[in-house]
Amino acid sequence: MADSLSLDNTLVSNLGIEIVELSDEKIVATMPVDERTQQPFGILHGGASVALAETVASIGTFFLIDQENENAVGLEINANHLRAVRSGKVKAIGTTYHRGRNTMVWDIKIVDEEEKLVCISRCTMAVIKRKK
C-alpha cells in the first residue's frame, strides 16, 4: 500500500482483508471466513461481504485518483448474496464499469475457494476534494 493509505487498525485489518492484486484494470482482495466474519449461524455474514466489496471499490478508486488532492468515499452499494460459505477464504475481484471525474462505478464479484460465485455487488464511489 502507498504511504498515504494505512489499513492498520481499521475495519479492513480487523476483518483480515488483504489486498493481493492492484492495477489500473482490477483489484483483488481476500477475506477469511472465520469468527470475525461469520454470522451466529456459522456462515459468512452478508455485511462482511458488503464490507469486502466496498473496501475493494474504495481502494481501487483511491489508486485511480489524485491522492494528494482527492478522496474516495462510498456513495451507494448493493449486493446479492448467492451462496453460503462456512470456512476458508473468499476472494473479491473488482473492475470498473465507469471512471468519471466525480464518480466511479465498480463491479465486484466475490467467489469461494472453488471459484464459485458467492456474492455480486455494484458500488458507486464519489470522488471528492480532500480537505487540507
UniProtKB/TrEMBL annotation:
Sorted UniProt keywords: Hydrolase
Residue ranges of every copy of the Thioesterase domain listed in the record: 41-119
InterPro entries per UniProt: HotDog_dom_sf, PAAI_dom, Thioestr_dom
Keyword Mitochondrion: no
Coiled-coil region: none
Record's keyword annotation contains Hydrolase: yes
Taxonomic superkingdom: Bacteria
Pfam families for the chain: 4HBT
SUPFAM superfamilies in the cross-refs: Thioesterase/thiol ester dehydrase-isomerase (SSF54637)
Protein family membership: Belongs to the thioesterase PaaI family.
PANTHER family found in the cross-reference section: 1,4-DIHYDROXY-2-NAPHTHOYL-COA THIOESTERASE 1 (PTHR43240)
Name under which the protein is recorded: Hotdog fold thioesterase
Organism: Chengkuizengella axinellae
